[in-house]
Structure formats: C-alpha cells, structure tokens
Amino acid sequence: MNFLLIAQTAQSQCTLNGQPIDCAELAEKAKPFIGLGVGIFVFILVISIIAFIFWLLMLIHAIKHNSPDRSTWILVLVVSFVVGLSFIGAIAYFFAEKKNAEQATAPSKPESSSPPQKVE
C-alpha cells in the first residue's frame, strides 16, 4: 500500500499558472523563495531573542535598583511584555531610568595636583 502511494507521488503533476508541470521542477523553481523565507524567519528569530534578553536585563535592573518609581517601572515592563511591546517598554526604561541610575552612581576620579614625589 505504501509503495503505491510513493509511486503516485513520484508521477504526480503540479500546476503552475494553470499549466501542468513536474513537481520536481516546481520544487527546483521554488528553492530561492523557500530559502528567502527561512532566512527572514531566522533573522526575525535572532532579533526577537536579542529583544527578549534586553527586556529581561531591564526587568532585572528594575527589580534590583532602589528607585522611587520602582514598582511603576516593574509594572510597565511586565505589562509591555504581556501586550507584545516588551522592546518598547525596555527602551523606555533604559532611557528614563537606567541611564540616569548609571550616571548617578558613576565613580568620580580623584583629582591629583601632582604625581607623588620620590624621597631619597
């Protein structure tokens, strides 16, 4: 029974623009489009993974960082994830809170008037 199914598939005809065409030839013509589709899928997948990691880092920072707006930002990040706008919420948090927090805690360089003198 399976042999008959394979034999029918090998001899089957496909149609392209209303014209009968061999299925192997049709598959050969479709290869570039299939490759393009797979390439676009992989590209979107990589961008999505990067966006998710960025969102996760911003959520971790919001949880660890003691800010007066901490609970608000955690809520914004979680809701933005639920509605599918996690990257936008993460970017908003990054520019509104994280950059300011990094600038406020940046260590200042001690000013030295002159290098230490060697005593003999």
List keywords for this structure.
about 120 residues; mainly alpha; two-stranded antiparallel ribbon; 4 helices; 2 strands; about 5% strand; elongated
Q: What value does the Rg take, in angstroms? A: 30 Å
- What percent of residues adopt helix (DSSP H or I)? 55-70%
Note the run of SSEs as H and E.
HEEHHH
- Which spans have pLDDT < 50 for at least 5 consecutive residues? 4-8
Major sheet:
2 strands, antiparallel
Task: Order the strands across the largest sheet as they lie in space.
Answer: 1-2
**Class inferred from helices and paired strands:** mainly alpha
What is the strand tally? 2
Distance between the termini: 101 Å
Topology of this structure?
Blueprint: H1 2-10, E1 13-16, E2 19-22, H2 23-64, H3 70-82, H4 86-104
Antiparallel strand pairs: 1-2
What can you tell me about this protein's structure?
With 120 residues, the chain is mainly α. It has one domain. It has 4 helices and 2 strands, in the order αββααα. The chain has a two-stranded antiparallel ribbon with strand order 1-2. α2 (23-64) runs antiparallel to α3 (70-82) and α3 (70-82) runs antiparallel to α4 (86-104). The longest helix is centred in the middle third of the chain and has 42 residues, at 23-64. The protein starts with a helix and ends in a 16-residue tail after the last helix. Residues 4-8 have low confidence and may be disordered.
